[in-house]
Amino acid sequence: MLSTTAMRRAAIAAACSIAATSGMAQETPVKGGRLDLVVQPEPTSLMIGITTNGPSLLVGGSIYEGLLRYDENLEPMPSLAKSWEISEDGLTYTFHLQEGVTFSDGEPFTSKDVVFTMKDFLMETKSKWRAIMEPVADVTAPDDTTVVVTMKEPFGPFIRSLSYNVAPMVPAHVYEGTEYATNPANDTPIGTGPYVLAEWKRGSYIELDANPNYWREGLPYLDDVVYHVVPDAASRATAFETRVVSVLPGGSVENFDIPRLAAEEGVCTTEKGWEYNAPLSWMWINNRTAPMDNKKFRQAIMYAMNREMMLKVLWNGYGKVATGPITSTIPFYDAVEPTYEYNPEKAKELLEEIGYDGKELRLLPLPYGETWQRWAEVVKQNLKAVGIPVEIESTDVAGWNQKTSQWDYDLAFTYLYENGDPAIGVARNYISSQIALGNPFNNVEGYSNPKVDELFAKAATAPSDEERQAAYTEVQKILQEDVPVAWLTELSFPTLYDCSVQGLVSTANGIGNSLGETWIKK
Amino acid sequence: MLRFILGRMVKIALILLAITILNFCLIHMAPGDPALVMAGEAGDADPKFIEDLRAQFGLDKPFIVQLWTYVSHFATGDLGFSYRQQMPVSELILDRLPATLLLSISAFLISLILGVVAGVIAAARQGKASDSIISTIALLFYATPLFWMALMAVLLFSVQLGWMPAFGYETAASDMTGLARMLDIAHHLILPSVVLGLFFMATYVRITRASMLEVNRLDFVKTARAKGLKPSVIQRRHVLRNAILPVVTLAGLHAGQLVGGAVLIETVFAWPGIGRLMFEALQSRDYNVLLGVFTVSAALVLMFNLITDFTYRIVDPRIRLK
């Protein structure tokens, strides 16, 4: 039963002291020092309750906090909530808040801020939060340090939706009754996190100073953190080589530079910190038109692609070949069949069977740099080898968004985060209700299967983990058979850092959620 | 003179307005809009999210209404607001303009001074080894892709020798002030400005050399020689002064491009200038910022055009302004 599992998790989490979660490093942490890292591209805002792009989260995650954090197995850990209970029927969540927490403007953080953030602020600013709140009946604050969330029906993913990137706690006394998007406080973010904004020189750098009133005793260790804005990938690599910066967060440099930089003396590498996002890459196949409307044609595409080679050559072996719609690090993943080994002969057989006429396909690469461009070229070669001619249609980010949201493509690269639970990050890509023109972040391929819709709905609200697992296993089997999209790889963006930097990644959300516990070995 | 200036100012204002309207139409013809880009960056978005953004940006209104709103604000000097960056466009541009002007003017002066001096020397030693060496070096810098030259300069002077900072406008979060800060900025300025300056130098070398040689062949130079003037005086007072007009024309055109012309260098050296602002705005379809930068850039081109006309008159009093 969910309740038993959840209670056990809650008990373990509550028993864990925060010091234990931060004590990943073997040696005694040293206080002081400055950490220099790269942020790319420059964030548009640090108010992560409104702006949720990757760079904003990387920096803003040290200023704002969520109720919970998650370890690498996505088990909840205390953050602004020190403990929590989930009722037997899965309908009531009770959170007990840390005491003595203040916002960086000196005002206390209380349950009133949590209720405001959940019921008002995020409902206005974040589409993801609106979806999470659908099964929620009410959020109340019986006292200053207790928050009670009641559900209309059980919704297992809720407990994994309270991290800083999904639900950062914002100050009610600053935002209540104002226009959130244009509130001047967005430029001077006020959070409860370990750092506060000291200076932002647009186009150059962002400097955060340690929050002197931070609620976790003895933290943060660092005096300040400086994020350098360096727009050119080669220059970012140089910045690391000259140690102007000592951390290159995942995705900061082109993949072909990683082996060279990683081999340097005193450079450490970690793939940790992406467990929550669990980025999965695939090619949308426009299911609406021939020959892509034929399941066998889509299967042929899967067999035609040498994904092992793509992983090895383009991604230096970082990551994994994807088996299906759910990333293997996410709960409820199941290694089910069919999977698609590289088998060009089988692809040719399938194409012959359906009488494919050799129609040329348009392929839209992802405009995110060299690796993605080369990836499209490899796919083009692979498909050409089995007799599918492909024309690559390059475009910029805005053009890519336009074409995919208007369904103007045959094949299109993309990757999306799975956000800790299939109900949040996976279902939206395959269920019929998410087919909507003008939006590039839903069921863009146009796949529709009532059985799949039913299974995803059932899995989200099933009262026990076992029932959820059964539904997800079945849906994975169906999707892997139908191939609505061509899954490529479970992406991994290794972080490179100077080995003197300790405790860089201590949560499933990576550097954006860990710098409070980072320190520099002298 | 006053009539001339007033007439030109009216002309400049009308051209600016026309350019702005044209740019507005061109930008809106590009696929995609800022709401979609921002939704894409957020990683997921429901229809409400995109609709809200479009309403906020005014993109839900008919094109002609959007154009009228922009132009009527523009006429009062208001360049609009960047919802993406949450700042007024004029503030964003003014924030970045000093860095761009510093880099561009330094590079401009380096290319102009080195180019003219090298061109004069090359002309004076026509056909000799030094002439060939100057021409070859200048062309070499011009023929090398700018970003590659920049990267090589960083590898040599920053990574290998450690003499220069690899990137940036100043040492980040250093708390330096006064003279120390100025010296720090100057140190950061050397590599980008020299690389950009050497790239543009070639055109000045070529045009100065050609123009000097042409003037040298004219009768009045022979007369000067016959009068027994010293060759250096002839070259400086008579030949160079007459040969400089094409250089002034080129410099005028070049100066006008200062604002937008350094995108590559600003990118490689992480220089926080207008070029990068423009490029990033283009990528994200931040219409107001893009239009603002185009307008400032166009205004500078027109202004330098005017300055060039005045310079002609100073250099050559035979030219009258009408």
How would you explain this protein's 3D organization?
The complex is a heterodimer of chains A (522) and B (322). Chain A has helices at 2-15, 18-22, 54-60, 111-125, 127-133, 172-175, 233-241, 258-262, 295-304, 307-314, 344-354, 370-385, 397-405, 422-425, 450-461, 465-482; strands at 34-39, 68-70, 76-78, 81-86, 92-97, 136-143, 146-151, 195-201, 205-210, 224-229, 247-248, 267-270, 280-285, 320-321, 361-364, 390-392, 411-416, 485-490, 495-498, 501-502, 519-520. Chain A is α+β, with helices and mostly antiparallel strands and 522 residues long. In chain A, the strands form six sheets. In chain A, strands 14-18-13-17-15-16 form a six-stranded mixed β-sheet. The longest helix of chain A has 18 residues, at 465-482. By secondary structure, chain B is mainly alpha-helical. Chain B has two domains: 2-78, no CATH class; 96-320, MetI-like (MetI-like fold). Chain B contains 13 helices and two strands. Chain B is globular, with a radius of gyration of 24 Å. The interface between A and B is large, with 59 and 55 residues.
By oligomeric state, this entry counts as: heterodimer
CATH topology of the largest domain in chain B: MetI-like fold
CATH superfamily of the largest domain in chain B: MetI-like
Q: State the name of the first-level CATH class of the largest domain in chain B.
A: Mainly Alpha
Briefly note the structural class of the backbone of chain B: mainly alpha
Shape of chain A: globular
Structural class of chain A: alpha+beta
The number of domains of chain B: 2
Rg over C-alpha atoms of chain A, rounded to the nearest angstrom: 23 Å
Strand and helix order of chain B: HHHHEEHHHHHHHHH
By CATH's scheme, which homologous superfamily of the domain at 280-490 in chain A applies? Answer: Dipeptide-binding Protein, Domain 3
What's the overall average pLDDT of chain B, rounded?
Answer: 86
Q: Determine the number of helices of chain B (DSSP H or I, runs of at least 4 residues).
A: 13
Strand fraction of chain A: 15-25%
Total number of β-strand segments of chain A?
Answer: 21
- Please give the share of residues in helix of chain A: 25-40%
Strand order of the largest sheet of chain A: 14-18-13-17-15-16
